[in-house]
Amino acid sequence: xxxxxxxxxxxxxxxxxxxxxxxxxxxxxxxxxxxxxxxxxxxxxxxxxxxxxxxxxxxxxxxxxxxxxxxxxxxxxxxxxxxxxxxxxxxxxxxxxxxxxxxxxxxxxxxxxxxxxxxxxxxxxxxxxxxxxxxxxxxxxxxxxxxxxxxxxxxxxxxxxxxxxxxxxxxxxxxxxxxxxxxxxxxxxxxxxxxxxxxxxxxxxxxxxxxxxxxxxxxx
Length: 220
Description:
Elements: H1 6-19, H2 23-39, H3 47-56, H4 69-80, H5 84-92, H6 111-123, H7 128-137, E1 140-141, E2 144-145, H8 148-159, H9 165-183, H10 194-199
Antiparallel strand pairs: 1-2
Helix pairs in contact: 1-3, 2-3, 2-7, 3-7, 4-5, 7-9
């Protein structure tokens, strides 16, 4: 595959974090970790490629705080370095059902750029790595892996939804189901922190004691 090595990818992310620090950096690290974890029992995925693609899927954010622009910035940045497979994932990762209309956030691209992205999605052959990063992007917040529903609501509350959002969510759940069929287990079983990251409570927290003694109240 046309991707950098793990060390090279980590250096690229470190440089990007200096240019535009923010939660997206930790999110990228968790996407990479999730991709590697899922690739471990998956017979068709390479661990290092999975990690690298996850780490760099949002690398376009190195250019600053943008919306759809970061997809193109990442694609162009990695393609110019000769990492075409990694560049492709920058464009494919938000679109599990190939529909550009499902993008969350600002459409800060020119008409020609939008046409390019739309044509790219229509013509691209999504492989196991595209699907893997689409799944992991929907599993990982900046705090770690959580239930997909929480990640989806977090994004929706920040960026809003539209008439095509539910179709995108359904496509992502289909990828999850297909992946679990291949690896023979729930993806959540690979991540012990899911409960804490989803509900904000430690999974081994002690039960809360309930005081059942009768209460007396005074009139106020």
